[in-house]
Amino acid sequence: MKKHAVVTGGGSGIGAAVAKKLLVDGLRVTLMGRSLERLQARQAALGDVAVQTCDVSDEASVNAAFAALGEVDILINSAGQVETAPFGKTSLELWQRLLNVNLTGTFLCSRAVLPGMLARKQGRIVNVASTAALKGYAYVAAYCAAKHGVLGLTRALALEVATKGVTVNAVCPGYTETDIVANAVDTIVAKTGRTPEQAKAELAKANPQGRLIQPEQVADTVAWLIASDGVNGQAIAVCGGETM
């Protein structure tokens, strides 16, 4: 039987690109996300994928969703959220919400699939972190803290399962051409009066290659990690050299 891959945040952006790549690679894919409408739209675009609604920040929702899926061989934790705010204006609600979606969601989903992987002595968990897991960025303290946490979780869990047929790794994209970057462009335009083109160029300057990362580049790296039995506990930056 085809191995079963679950992609959280699979309705758009990096998650959708990963799902498309895994389908091409011959895996059975389930898209997971909060919006059934968005998932079904992506399902119509991709074809042979299943969909499962889930709020990754809610323990009961995660447990119910994964119980309905059966065996999961590969988990891609791609669900994420970012919001900008100066640190002094970062509310506790914003702080907790970004931790819940980006970090706690990764923990809950990984915990849900790990017992089955360990029982079968095989499995792959790939966490979509960010270069914000490797360095700081101004005005996104909550997001950076959450993504640093994802990397710490990745490394700790990788050591626990190192001899048990399971690998746990992270990909750390730089600014990637997704809805998240589109929202960042809108914020820059609103606050600085720059044109959208100027705002996008400003973000692209962070990449020494002078361009935004494409979701498909991240998806290729995820697929490589799935195929790589000897790579474990690593943070693979996909950022054109922004971090070294």
Tell me briefly what this model is:
Helix content is 49%, strand content 15%. It has helices at 13-24, 36-46, 59-69, 92-120, 141-160, 179-192, 196-204, 215-227; strands at 4-8, 28-33, 50-53, 74-77, 123-128, 166-173, 235-238. It has a seven-stranded parallel sheet with strand order 3-2-1-4-5-6-7, with helices on both faces.
Write structural notes for this entry.
Helices cover 49% and strands 15% of the residues. With 244 residues, the chain is an alpha/beta fold. It folds into 2 domains: 4-174 and 214-238, NAD(P)-binding Rossmann-like Domain (Rossmann fold), CATH 3.40.50; 175-212, no CATH class. Strands 3-2-1-4-5-6-7 form a 7-stranded parallel β-sheet, sandwiched between helices.
Order of strands across the biggest sheet?
3-2-1-4-5-6-7
**CATH architectural arrangement of the largest domain:** 3-Layer(aba) Sandwich
Please give the domain count: 2
Category by helix and strand content = alpha/beta
Unreliably modeled segments: none
Separation of termini? 40 Å
| Principal-axes shape call | globular
Largest sheet: 7 strands, parallel
Backbone CA Rg: 17 Å
Instruction: Compute the number of strand runs.
Output: 7
User: What average pLDDT do the residues reach?
Assistant: 96
Helical element count? 8
